[in-house]
Design goal:
four-stranded antiparallel beta sheet, binds ribavirin triphosphate, binds magnesium ion, nucleotide-binding, Nucleoside_diP_kinase, kinase, transferase, nucleoside diphosphate kinase activity
Length: about 140
């Protein structure tokens, strides 16, 4: 088993409803440690860069508008197999398909307003962490 770090966002639909602590409780219950965390508001340019992989998708404009609509909480999570484990803790992208007890099943409003982001690979985790945190902000 490998000790990994993954990048997480608590999305605007969740911060707006004061669910930061409730999301963090599920993260910690799963054995992941929050080793960095800050509340920020994304600029449009930051959101477009972050979700650049989806720029040709029909939902891209809506996704960027949503991600800049309210503050978000960005985090670094550390633990055994953290990348895959956090994807499990989040649940499926569409909350209708998410398993019981997952963040998206518990809290997501729709496939777009789905409360959480988690990196989909170790490589992307490293890229995404570097976009938002400097090394001395992460304390493992
Ligand atoms: P994320 O990147 O945010 O962790 O989500 P994911 O991997 O589960 O899903 P992905 O396919 O990467 O999609 C990124 C985000 O775009 C929004 N989305 N909206 N309206 C739609 O059909 C649609 N599909 C995706 C969601 O906010 C999704 O998390
Ligand atoms: Mg994704």
């Amino acid at each position: 088993m490998a000790l990994e770090r993954t990048f997480s966002i608590i999305k605007p639909d969740a911060t707006r409803r004061n669910l930061t602590g409730a999301v963090n409780a599920l993260i910690e219950k799963a054995g992941l440690r929050i080793v960095a965390q800050k509340r920020i508001q994304l600029t449009r340019a930051q959101a477009e860069t972050f979700y650049g992989v989806h720029k040709e998708r029909p939902f891209f404009g809506e996704l960027v508008d949503f991600m800049i609509s309210e503050p978000i909480v960005v985090q670094v999570l550390e633990g055994e197999n953290a990348v895959a484990k956090y994807r499990e803790v989040m649940g499926a992208t569409n909350p209708a398909n998410a398993a019981e007890g997952t963040i998206r099943k518990e809290f997501a409003l729709s496939v777009g307003e789905n409360s959480a982001h988690g990196s989909d690979s170790l490589e992307n985790a490293q890229i995404e962490i570097a976009q938002f945190f400097s090394g001395n902000e992460i304390v493992g």
